[in-house]
Amino acid sequence: MEVFEAVRTVLAVRQFQEQPVPEPIIQQIVEAGHLTASSMNKQPWHFIVVQDKAMLRQLGTLARTGPYIAQAPLAIVVGMEHSPFAVSDASRAIQDMILTAWAHGIGSNWVGFTNLEQVNPVLGIPPEIEILAILPFGYPKASIGKGMKKRKPLGEIAHRERWNQPFA
59 and 121 in contact (C-beta within 8 Å)? Predict the structure, then answer.
């Protein structure tokens, strides 16, 4: 899948098949996060790959906005070191992992946005590492409408040269 096609069609997936994600694809998803550009090349991110069903159920309980983590065959917990650019860098890595998975037909969704301190002791993560998100991954349970996104018209959000001069 071409990059723009992945961006155009990716949707949030919250229901997953029980089918496991093949190890080579997991490796590629994690590597996509690892290869993401980073401010001053600090790479403040940490990725914890979770496949244990009991741990996935526990993560689904701890992340109040993501109980569906429990039914995913895989989740990646994204932690970050304290840095002025950590949220930006880790967010870029998250998007790269989601798009890489999507190119293989694997869906995901961003769960949480900080306030996940209770995950640290469960996964043995040091307290100085802040959890930014939990990303459940899996093959979508139902067919989802690729590319059918509800977005504002481009002319409302994109400007050319100056504010209020429509881009398109």
Answer: no
